[in-house]
Design goal:
The chain contains six helices and ten strands, in the order ββααβββαββαβββαα. It is of the alpha+beta class.
């Protein structure tokens, strides 16, 4: 069974497996702080529990628990290695906290999967005059892939090189025009 938990500060929901949901509502500490009903959407896009407590000796302490990390530590810690120690979402949806979607990754893979900051809208694609350059990072060095007439062509070239170099651990751009054509064909 799949549970959808509404976030406190957004119209979004977190997806949880039934065994994870049962653990979250039955764990003595998590139920005491009403963890499930106090999940918020963090500025990074993931679900987080944050509570500020007044200390006995004065001052305040803020407790922050990231949902995806909490679940991975409880259920997937056996897959964690020294190198692959960051939790990520296989499908890119940080609110999909089902066990099949969470995975431990290396810092390099997490960096490649991060959302692009390119003004063109595609990872590894940059506009130069009236053309588009595709580049990819290999061993911390920028490698030129080629120059292209459109941003979409450059993004597809980046995708091919990313698959060649990194397999399923590489970043793949979602091509806007290609996605539109595929929708038109299936109608």
């Amino acid at each position: 069974m799949l549970y959808k938990v509404k976030l406190k500060n957004a119209d979004d929901h977190v997806l949880l497996d039934d065994q994870v949901y049962d653990w979250l509502i039955n764990d003595p500490y998590l139920s005491k702080v009403d963890f499930v009903n106090n999940l918020r959407k963090h500025s990074s896009g993931c679900a987080v529990f944050q509570k500020t407590w007044k200390k006995a000796d004065g001052g305040y302490k803020t407790e922050t628990i990231y949902l995806h990390k909490l679940i991975a530590e409880k259920y997937l810690n056996h897959t964690r290695t020294r190198k692959e120690n960051l939790v990520g979402a296989r499908n890119g949806n940080k609110l999909d906290c089902r066990l099949e979607n969470l995975v431990y990754r290396s810092r390099a893979v997490a960096s490649r999967k991060r959302k692009t900051s390119s003004k063109v809208g595609y990872t590894g694609v940059y506009r130069e005059n009236n053309r588009y350059r595709a580049v990819i990072s290999v061993d911390r060095k920028s490698v030129h892939i080629g120059m292209f007439s459109t941003a979409e062509e450059a993004a597809m070239a980046y995708n091919r090189k990313s698959r060649e170099l990194y397999g399923d651990k590489g970043k793949i751009n979602v091509i806007k025009k290609q996605a539109r054509k595929e929708r038109d064909i299936s109608v």
